[in-house]
Amino acid sequence: MRPRTTTVLANKIIQGDVRAVARLIRRIDDGDPEVIPELRKLYLHAGRSHVIGFTGSPGVGKSTLVDRIVSRFRGDGKTVGIIAVDPTSPFSGGAILGDRIRMQRHFLDAGVFIRSMATRGSFGGLTRSTADAIVVLEAMGKDVVIVETVGVGQDEVDIAHSAHTTVLATVPGMGDDIQAIKAGLMEIGDLFVVNKADREGAAKTIRELRTMLEMSSERYAADGWMPPVLATQAANDEGIDELYQAILEHRRFLESGGGEKLWKRQQTRVYNQLVDLLKEHLLGRALQKIGDRPALAGIADRIVAGETDPYSACQELVERLLGEAKGDSQ
Amino acid sequence: MRPRTTTVLANKIIQGDVRAVARLIRRIDDGDPEVIPELRKLYLHAGRSHVIGFTGSPGVGKSTLVDRIVSRFRGDGKTVGIIAVDPTSPFSGGAILGDRIRMQRHFLDAGVFIRSMATRGSFGGLTRSTADAIVVLEAMGKDVVIVETVGVGQDEVDIAHSAHTTVLATVPGMGDDIQAIKAGLMEIGDLFVVNKADREGAAKTIRELRTMLEMSSERYAADGWMPPVLATQAANDEGIDELYQAILEHRRFLESGGGEKLWKRQQTRVYNQLVDLLKEHLLGRALQKIGDRPALAGIADRIVAGETDPYSACQELVERLLGEAKGDSQ
């Protein structure tokens, strides 16, 4: 790997060149290691955007919510970047025609930049590549960067850690969904939205969410923010103004009191990004050193043949790579 | 980290001691590094079980499907281990009372061992800890190990790579869900189930899935298995015999032709497990070497303060850890 220092794309991106942005994000998505010098340069120009995460199961109307919120930001003259890491999202090309047509007004708006992340590679670089894409959209000068994810998995939790403000969306009567939120995502939500609130059971769902939040109120007592639970009907544009105001309020909350909360949030974001980068780079360099994937496949063969086991093989590799004798830290 | 070689739990587990199994799985879930010698020992006794993954969104009736299939295996005199990595599963304690009561007959059956994995830690060890738990249940002598996951994220794809046979479940009319399957999971399904098939639109959903499978038929032409699409009503025990037979048939398929296909599947499982182990161990040792998480938090602080950026900081750390000068591989 030659250390490349070209930052041609970065220079163009800082000037707002949309094609350069698209090219770099594609290269990030492809896992091209030569993006690093560009990202290093861009990082100096990032850090001024409000990064907002939207997450929730397929079918909760998340894309419509995002669409409505984007319109509010545009109405206030803010530029918006959107990263869709949702396989069901119209942004990422997975959705039905209706959704796609609905979003076209933003596709035609120069103040909105939309890009999807497809990386679901076998080395799990999705969180890392999403964090990199956020840096790119921040550096291109977007006031707001929206990250749309789907589901309740670890990826979504990790990606939520890249946001300043995380909106969790659900719909009435999704009992299972609320259980999932409880189990995995409750801790990361700054705002909760019950969309399609004209459906039966909306009041009950809102009540349940509020109860769950109150039960974990020590968490919020510590940091001073009690996540609101909002009712929306994104398809009819109802409740969206309230959601928009709540998003802005959360940002003001983070900035209040001398910016200590915002600093803490940034620190968490950076810490998680560092861990992801370290994991990926260590594995990449390690594979390179041992002879890349074919060498690892060879070891896998030996394990299947019963000559060794994954735990011993891994320990040997780690010791070889980090240059430590067995048990030297005893 | 002292190299510990006690395999007290492993010896008990091989003899089928349920409490030892529970204890070791809890320690795996907690990320205790001292489980390694135990796992190394257990690995020698693993590899004879049929590992079956069940995945699908919340609400598709996955737990009821698993419940029914477990009954079939028990009826044939097979012992079953279940690992629930689904926050909405009755096994993992997240679900409504009805589900929990429904599953109690298996809780009281000594031939069935059920354990949930909770690890959604910040270092994303879920796939790794699930793979370890599979080894434990295999070594305790279970004929069949079922891994139940939820959703469409990378975790589920990764965990599916730990199975010999993966069953993907959906319900009629979940258009979004099918899109999600298409985007993320299509490639990993060996069997597709449309549950709640008495609902409107079942025939259409089945047709759509079959079309999608046929469109990607080159994949299947190469390996010779065309995933069937089955209609079930798990709550009424309908279609379950057909699903059970299809699962057994897939196992026979893997074993056919001299076992080459099974070997390949095992090799893929092991390869993925190795990558996960490597990632986690490299990061663990790396953190240890640089002064653990507080040291990393200190670097994060410097980044937030604008003194460096994550990319440069990570590169420095990797170079320090792997003892390479900048650009030495030029």
Structural description of this entry:
The structure is a homodimer of 330-residue chains. Chain A has helices spanning 8-14, 18-29, 36-43, 62-75, 97-102, 104-107, 126-139, 154-160, 175-185, 202-215, 217-223, 240-255, 260-290, 292-304, 310-322; strands spanning 50-55, 80-85, 112-116, 144-149, 165-170, 191-194, 229-231. The first copy, chain A, is α/β, with parallel strands linked by helices and 330 residues long. Chain A has a 7-stranded parallel β-sheet with strand order 3-2-4-1-5-6-7, sandwiched between helices. At the A-B interface, helix 3, helix 8, helix 9, helix 13 and helix 14 of A face helix 3, helix 8, helix 9, helix 13 and helix 14 of B.
Q: For the residues shown, what is the average pLDDT of chain A? A: 79
Which chains have the largest interface? A-B, 84 and 83 residues
Strand content of chain A: 5-15%
Largest sheet of chain A: 7 strands, parallel
> Low-confidence runs of chain A (pLDDT<50, min 5 residues)?
88-102, 120-124, 325-330
Total strands of chain A: 7
